[in-house]
Amino acid sequence: MSSSSDASQTSLNGQVTEKLTRTNYVLWRTQVIPQLRGAGVFGYVDGTQPEPAKLLVTTDKDGKETSSPNPLHPIWVREDQQVLGYLLNNLTREVLLTVTTVTTAGALWTTLVGMFSSQSASRINNIRTSLINAQKGNLSVASYFAAMRGYADELAAAGKAIPDDELASYIIHGLDADYQPLVSALDARVTEVTLDEIFAMLSNFDQRMAHF
């Protein structure tokens, strides 16, 4: 829970650059989560800041129970509604129409996760397929690396980051037969090759081929 509802409201009054549509969930989530965490209110959407009881029940020495309003409950409701309002303001109309009955930030977050999880899984599979099938072809080394790094960044944004050595394997796999001498040299390496080293070796190889 944030230390001040006014502080969290101020922190969350800015909109993200990409409102949620039916096709950009991963990008939208990547923008929204840091803002929620930065404002100290991510607990309202991930369930770690649960709704407190409306009433406090106490028992006296004779075993008689009495109840009184919990002062923490209206504070929670106020901040939860601020977070809910922030999220709703960053949905496009097509998505907003599907969540009109949601009344809490946590319920909205759960609904969106369920709505887009299968889409995200499909997107991850498509990115991995693109990595496997990528070919350098006539691309420059810089363009080829930028494309492959772009796929890796998309996977990272979807929560499926791959290590550099795996990305290096995809990059090497996408080289055609002309690069066989370079691939053989890389295979013979005892130490693990870095992405920067592969980039430099590919650039030098292309320069030599252009010279000859």
Automatic annotation (TrEMBL):
Pfam families: Retrotran_gag_2. It comes from the Eukaryota. This is Uncharacterized protein.
